Amino acid sequence: MDTINKYGLQTPKILLPKDNGMLTKWPVVACDQYTQEKAYWEKVSNFVGNAPSTLNLILPEVYLEDGNKEERIAKIRNTMSKYLQENVFKTPLSAMIYLERQTEYGRTRKGIITCIDLETYEWKPFSHALIRATEATIVDRIPPRMKIRQGALLESPHIMLLVNDSEKKLIEKTGELAKKENKQLYDISLMMNAGKISGWEISPEDSDIQTNITTALNSIKNENTDDTGAPFMFAVGDGNHSLATAKAVWDEYKTKEKITDHPARYALVEIVNIYDEGLTFEPIHRVLYDIDKTGLISFLQTQLSSTTTIKRIECTSEEKLEKKVKESIGSFGFVYKDEKNISHYTLLETSISDLIVSHVQPLIDDFLKTQPSSSIIDYIHGSNEVFRLGKNKNAITILLPPIAKQSFFKTISHSGPLPRKSFSMGEASEKRFYMESRKLF
Fold it and tell me: Whole-prediction pTM value?
């Protein structure tokens, strides 16, 4: 146990619903999904009805701007208290959980549910903490979320941490051992046709499992250090602002109460191997409106030429541009129409070997400062959208290459958190569903 504490982990006391018959209505998808689709959340509410559910323990972000936010938060706190008083949960389970998530797309993602020590996490750029942010944290997003967590009796996680484990020692091997112990905790279908989820207990008393975890963590530490020699154990894949909020609440609470340890010092998370075949890792492309299109390309080419070999290539078709970008690490493309309504497919080929978005986005931001106030940037998923939106006369789209898993941790280590909207981990329905809970106060 000393070893996992050394690496920022702690065996949690997990709360699971007592009545297995209600499990189909208990877990709901992460609150930061379907933020433009109230209809989705209304369907969830209708499905849940009056049954106990994590829907009643969270505030879906689609409702953040509604006028009744404070009323919703008060209701959440009351429900947490009610669930604890009415024994909705089983006796707390002191264990980690090995998780298998089958999604509606036929993919299976594996993970471990555990606690992390917030003292070992830092979202600020160029941190040498054990656990680091992967994308830029927008500080203004933290205070509204603090209001939800402050005073909350329970937490349920949608936070997912990534571990750089190409040999699959930590999660996959642990899962094999956990399944042999035959301590399955749940195996249920998820609502809204989102697949199914299964979980097995990882007991602190299972010596073979604990030995494997210890060995794996030591190996990961030795293979993942930054330029200063500091170990870089985990990177936040999903839920960065939620984790930053948990840290802010703990920092405030420990200062006010003058304490060094408390359940609020920890946060429940799921750890996923970045090399998991079931974890899709996709770039998020860009579309810009009402800007100087050729000026943007020239600006990026000029700016990048000071740090890399760069070549501009005019492709003759969508297919050729997409092929060149998808086969690269450091090349990216532009799709736009000129004043004569002729489509262009332009490639900037570079020798950059880490994540290109970390180089390109800051330059895009600089260029936008020189453009009219009506100029805007948006973020899009899928190459089909890149080519579709690139046909709009007032738009130019940017096609980014696949996210290279082998360079992901290196980029974060050397360059700090990536720019906003750099990558996506799966489709909305593949995001984490709230299942496990833990007492905070």
Answer: 0.88
Q: Identify the CATH class of 281-425.
A: alpha beta
Q: What angle do CA 119, 123, 124 make, to 5 degrees?
A: 110
What distances in angstroms separate CA 201 from CA 8, 28, 182, 284, one per listed residue? 20, 21, 9, 35
Are 160 and 432 in contact by the 8 Å Cβ rule? The answer is yes
Dihedral sign from CA coordinates of 114, 120, 124, 127: negative
Structure tokens at 13: 């006391």
For the chain, the domains span 2-280+426-439, 281-425
* pLDDT per residue rounded down to tens, the chain (441 residues): 557 899 999 999 999 999 777 789 999 999 999 987 899 999 999 999 999 999 999 999 999 888 898 999 999 999 999 999 999 999 999 999 999 999 999 999 999 999 999 999 999 988 999 999 998 888 988 998 899 899 899 999 999 999 999 999 999 999 999 999 989 999 999 999 999 999 999 999 999 999 999 999 999 999 999 889 999 999 999 999 999 999 999 999 999 999 999 999 999 999 999 999 999 988 999 999 999 999 999 999 999 999 999 999 999 999 999 999 999 989 999 999 999 999 999 999 999 988 899 899 999 999 999 999 999 999 988 899 999 999 999 999 999 999 888 888 988 888 888 888 898 898 889 999 999 999 998
Secondary structure class of 408 (helix, strand, coil): helix
